[in-house]
Amino acid sequence: xxxxxxxxxxxxxxxxxxxxxxxxxxxxxxxxxxxxxxxxxxxxxxxxxxxxxxxxxxxxxxxxxxxxxxxxxxxxxxxxxxxxxxxxx
Length: 89
Known about the structure:
By secondary structure, this protein is an all-alpha fold. The protein is 39% helix and 0% strand. It is built from three helices and no strands.
């Protein structure tokens, strides 16, 4: 399969959500302690859905703010990603 990904994840709400309470709890704890988390998986494995679920969960935490970047920074460097994030905060 080649070309752009035709899947429009921003409009997708799964008909049958996967209950992944243990995964949510583990990732949430890492994030709340200031740890970085990498989400890796193939197309259609639920990465975007997981991130939206985590964003909703973290929004319930006091003094916690989430920012969703819908596109990569203009330059593929850590500094560019941090500058983009700082600009959105």
